[in-house]
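Appendix B. Extra example for self-study. Work through it before the problem class; the solution is given directly after the inputs so you can check yourself.
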Amino acid sequence: MKWILILLLLLPSLAAAIEYHGENTIFEDTVWQGEVLIDGILTVAMGATLEIRPGTRVRFTRIDTNGDGIGESEIFAQGRFIARGTAEQPIIFTSAAQNPAPGDWGTLNMMLSEAGENLLENCLVEYGYRGFHAHFSLARLRSSTFRYNQRGAQFQESTVSIEDSEFSHNFNGLQFRDSQVDIKNSRILNNHWGIRAVFVELQMEGTRVEGNRINGVSLRDSKLQLRNNLIVDNRRGLYLQRSSGKLSGNRITNNREHGIYLEESVAEIQGNLISGNGRSGLKTHDSGGQVENNRIEHNGEFSFYNSGTDDFEIGGNWYGSSVRLPQLMDGRSRAGLGMLQVAPPLTRQPEVKIF
Amino acid sequence: MNLLLKHCRSFVFILGLLLTGCALSPTVSPPKLQNGTAQHPIEISGVMQQDLRLGGVIRLSGDLLIPKGRNLQVEPGSRILVVGTDSTKIDPEFLDKGTEILVKGRIHLAGEKMAPVTLSLDEETPAGENWAGIELVAAEEAVFRFVDIIGAETGILSLDSSPQLEEVNILGSRYGLLLQGTGRLDYAGGRISGGDAGLLCFDQSVLNLNQLQIIDNLEEGLYLAVGCTLQQQGLLIERNDLGAVASAESRELLAPTLRANRVNFKPLAQEGSLQ
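Solution. Structure tokens for the complete assembly:
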């Protein structure tokens, strides 16, 4: 008897394991610590707060009743969701399967949760369908990692701040629509899509977008500010459609196709390094803006490619030396294309300030 | 001796069970052919839950995912009509905003010379919209024979896959065929024509091209990044803007294939990029 008591004292986490089976709702403020198993859908009702303490591990069982390959266990927060781990004791959201796979469980779902900011800090979110999902919500993601999900995170009609976080090895990294999103000092690595968004305002600074198979950053009908980011080794680096953008101090290099592709967009591109991209440094299609004081060097086929019918003006840039001219593709080479009006190259290499 | 005999009997008994089991176990039969008509096409979309064998008129009304372990077989003479999506779509299930066929399992488009399989836009598609194309993502198998792929964003996107194409025409697609990652492309006969770019290889695939024609594309006919390996026989690259863009060392290999392009050969930048 004495030994059993000692064993129980030594295994507090097992003794305190929390399990939810089927559909459940939390109506009162609730705190989790230790081991939690979600085997179904757990709703946090409006007015209630779910707080998760450092070191907690939340596991989700795989339930796929409609056979679509997407797990259905999830947390559905209409109230407030606060998961605050520490660097030493992160909070883990993961699959309960022995051989976990992306999409084993649904999502950490914030729905109409605007009363207070929802928070994930020092969390690891893995093997979900959408690691994190917000709809009409406020959220802050800090120092957290989202990996091996079908989508790292997805927002609609939300205001989301992301700092010091990583989205890596998801099928797609970040997708959002009709939202205001601020990304700082983060890493978006080795997904198929890095960032894809429409109708958004995105500010991104000090962030590394690398190794994404399709596009690094792709926005449509949106506004963008990019400062001091590293956008490297994606297929397309930055793709803007019907959007406007300001880009400064970014290093946009070694993307397989185009460093920057503007389609019916307007962009101020100043003080960036655009180098080593496979097809072109900057491709424009019926777009406008200012392109000056950049270093544009060693791109595979062309420095600038105008595939639209509108002309495009390019200011003074540095092309590797004071006498070196950019490689151009425009109406001079193919009838029907717009012209590139290119100012003389800079005589001194501009300083490109990159983090 | 008794022990040996006992073991022998056990062995024979187990062998017998195995043989009987093999004889009695149900064989995996191919899926039943489903045939659509213009009035009543077979409608498909979503995640394929079982192997499918389709013929006649097939309507792809939304994204289709062929997961690992699943097989889509399409019979000779089939017409796959793809309903394109308008460009306000933000929540693509898979890779593209347009309607796509994403293959992680197996796809067999088995046309014949007089009865090719065609994939093109359905008339309900809003004007100006493309469909995404066929996307192979570490696909288990992709075999296309006598197939016409028309008006896609990217006719075939192959990520870490090894498609086998015979007499495949990719027509009027923004990108004809795009290879990323590793894998091997075997492409015999057919043409890639009327798009922006013909065949692009970005990483480390092996291309085995035999009697392929890459013609009349607005930008590059063939783009080979440094890590791609080309083997070719009877390749023709004609009337593109840039015939071939590749490392300077490939110039000699490609020279006999290049004809009447605005610029027949453009070497990739040699200086290397700045880090």
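Self-check: Chain A touches chain B at residues 67-69, 154, 156, 172, 175, 177, 192-193, 196-199, 213-214, 220, 235, 253-254, 256-257, 273, 275-279, 295, 297-301, 307, 320, 333-334 (CB under 8 Å). If your reasoning did not lead you there, revisit section 3.
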